Amino acid sequence: MTTATTTSTTTPRPDPATVAFKDGLASMLAYLTRVLKIPTIARCWEDLAAQARDENWSHEEYLAALLQRQVADRESAGTIMRIRTAHFPAVKTLDDFNLDHLPSLRRDVLAHLATGTFVAKAENVILLGPPGIGKTHLAIGLGVKATQAGYSVLFDTASNWITRLAGAHQSGQLEAVNRPGSGRGS
């Protein structure tokens, strides 16, 4: 007579109290991150917590890593929204502009404009020249730089401005066009 012996190994069951605590903690963090409107932290706290445990981060390092991700995502989303609301006809950057097509453009002037200091100083930039040399591309590129720096931008063409100003002048509302909040097409 032969007897067969079988050995079975079972994975140890997790402690129910530990599971309940982790589930409760996850639920609480999901609620808190939703109320505080910090979706990036809601999405990545567990992965970062595991990394922090593996690499022996301090609590402060873990918190800083979570907050850095939240801020980076919020800034990125803000830039995307500002670009979208600027009404650019197409999104173009200064990096995409081929400076060889416009040799008369002083690179030092363009580099200075790219810093965006003219925006903070409320200075005007006027791009003049014949059609097809890249004025619109440069204007959009400067606008994109401004949105990346946190400024709100509203793009429009010179011909649209002339139409809007002429209409406002005829209706006696020229002063209202340049008021903050007057919006596009006032």
Describe the structure.
By secondary structure, this protein is mainly alpha-helical. The chain has three domains: 19-85, no CATH class; 88-155, P-loop containing nucleotide triphosphate hydrolases (Rossmann fold, 3-Layer(aba) Sandwich), CATH 3.40.50; 157-186, no CATH class. It is built from eight helices and no strands. The chain has helices at 16-35, 39-54, 59-85, 107-114, 117-120, 135-148, 158-170, 174-177. α2 (39-54) runs antiparallel to α3 and α3 runs antiparallel to α6 (135-148). It is elongated and about 65 Å long.
What's the SSE blueprint?
Layout: H1 16-35, H2 39-54, H3 59-85, H4 107-114, H5 117-120, H6 135-148, H7 158-170, H8 174-177
What is the assigned CATH homologous superfamily of the largest domain? P-loop containing nucleotide triphosphate hydrolases
Q: What share of the residues lie within helices?
A: 55-70%
Work out the oligomeric state of the chains in this entry: single chain
| Percent range for β-strand residues | under 5%
Instruction: Supply the number of structural domains.
Output: 3
CATH architecture descriptor of the largest domain:
3-Layer(aba) Sandwich
- Tell me about the largest β-sheet: none
Radius of gyration: 28 Å
| Number of separate helices | 8
| Count of extended strands | 0
**SSE topology string:** HHHHHHHH
